[in-house]
Design goal:
Elements: H1 9-31, E1 43-44, H2 45-52, H3 56-64, E2 72-73, E3 79-81, H4 83-95, E4 114-119, H5 127-140, E5 145-149, H6 155-159, H7 164-167, H8 174-178, E6 191-192, E7 198-201, H9 208-219, H10 226-234, E8 243-247, H11 254-262, E9 265-270, H12 274-296, E10 305-310, H13 318-331, H14 344-351, H15 366-390
Parallel strand pairs: 4-8, 4-9, 5-7, 5-8, 9-10
Antiparallel strand pairs: 1-3, 2-3, 6-7
Bound molecules: adenosine-5'-triphosphate (ATP) and magnesium ion.
């Protein structure tokens, strides 16, 4: 019998890495024009009215009375709005409103910036998906948002149309703003995105260095210590934003701890099956122990809220329903009312590095698309209420 030739695992993995990288590059080139970065689609009148928080008939009236600038109109007379149009209309509405903060609901004097962490050490529980949809929806609703990619895998950065393995390989990622040696100002790593009002602090593999360097930094007592570095770095830019969204890596390392210590709200994404729930139990225990340690070292531990966000929910799945019921009984109001439904529209959009807010409805089965959109909007609007409540409104 022929003996299997041993493979050199390092050579094989390197070959795999190279063929994957070039295939991905081809895929990206096919998905987007080579030099043009991603662009945002236009929104229908119905979507525009929903995002502005007014009725479609009021929006039509605003156009009829020429109180807002005209927008792109199809030969059939349908209006389509860019995100920039929406922002311009929002500002006009706000300027003419009797109560401030009706159309621009961001923070006011004295309100602190809201910093949201999407967290769980379980891989694939939907941290990146929920973080990017939240960041995009908040930006479309007129908030000034900064999305921070804390994950060395840099999935969030890829979803914004970057190739982290090329674009920020040597410079320009979050690592440069939090590293121990000569950190750069946070403002120098911020990228504008194709969503008006939404900026990105890109991640990248180099963030892994922060995990490696922290033990030495602790020994040599470099200040600020790891748990305070994210908050300290963000101080320079936080006045420019209403909401900061952290996409955390699937591990409880120094990066995640630093993100947690800079957060005001935490969302733990959980897939409702027993294995995931069991691993979440270990995750919660470990988090609490680690937080005790940093808290004793002087870290701030005051949060406005902590919620469990159920993801990939299939309402017709009996065992899932039981797990959700179990979680609700255990954590009551800490489980968000709206779950994120499992949807092929979400995963298919992800295949072309897009979100539900970016893809065209016509590219999907209508009912599938609408269900996914409805579910994500409900989740994000619930989070928005938590933020508004934290601001005392
Ligand atoms: N509600 C959903 N319905 C269908 N697919 C989903 C849903 N949420 C996430 N996915 C898909 O599952 C995969 C993993 O999701 P995501 O990357 O958001 O998880 P993650 O927690 O950020 O993973 P990691 O721990 O690796 O960072 C992605 O391909 C995403 O498109
Ligand atoms: Mg992720």
């Amino acid at each position: 019998m022929a003996v299997t030739e041993p493979i050199h695992i390092n050579t094989r993995i390197r070959e795999n890495a190279q063929s994957l990288a070039s295939a991905l590059e081809q895929h990206l080139l096919k998905s987007f024009a080579p030099d043009a970065r991603k662009q945002l689609r236009l929104f229908s009148a119905g979507e525009a009215a929903d995002l502005l928080g007014i009725s479609p008939s009021f929006l039509r009236k605003l156009h009829f009375e020429e109180r807002v600038p005209e927008v792109h109109t199809t030969p059939g007379g349908r209006r389509h709005y860019s995100a920039t149009d929406l922002l311009a209309i929002r500002r006009i509405l706000e300027d003419n409103s009797r109560t401030t903060g009706t159309y621009l609901k961001g923070r006011r004097d004295g309100d602190k910036v809201q910093v949201l962490s999407f967290l769980n050490f379980k891989g694939g529980s939907g941290k990146t998906t929920s973080a990017i949809h939240a960041a995009q929806r908040f930006a479309l609703k007129g908030y000034r948002v900064l999305a921070v990619d804390i994950d060395p895998q840099a999935s969030l950065t890829s979803l914004f149309g970057y190739q982290p393995e090329y674009d920020f390989l040597h410079e320009g990622s979050l690592y440069d703003a939090i590293r121990y040696e000569n950190p750069l100002p946070f403002s120098s790593i911020i990228q504008k995105t194709y969503f008006p009002g939404l900026d990105l602090a890109p991640g990248g593999l180099i963030l892994q260095e922060f995990e490696h360097e922290t033990p030495t930094a602790l020994r040599t007592n470099i200040q600020p210590p790891f748990y305070a570095r994210m908050a300290a770095a963000l101080q320079e830019v936080e006045q420019d934003y209403d909401i900061i969204v952290f996409d955390c890596p699937p591990q409880l390392g120094y990066l995640t701890m630093s993100a947690l210590c800079a957060s005001t709200g935490v969302l733990i994404t959980v897939v409702p099956n027993m294995l995931d729930v069991a691993s979440m139990s270990q995750f919660l225990q470990m988090s609490a122990d680690l937080l005790d340690v940093v808290s004793n070292a002087g870290a701030r531990m005051e949060f406005d809220f902590l919620r469990f966000l159920i993801n990939r929910y299939e309402p017709s799945d009996g065992p899932q329903q039981q797990v959700v019921a179990f979680l609700r009984q255990l954590f009551s109001s800490e489980v968000m009312t709206s779950p994120m439904l499992k949807s092929t529209a979400i995963s298919d959009a992800g295949l072309t590095q897009q979100t539900i807010y970016e893809v065209e409805r016509s590219a999907f089965h209508r009912a599938t698309y609408d269900r996914a959109m409805e579910s994500l909007n409900a989740v994000n609007d619930e989070i928005e209420t938590l933020l508004q409540t934290a601001w005392g409104r």
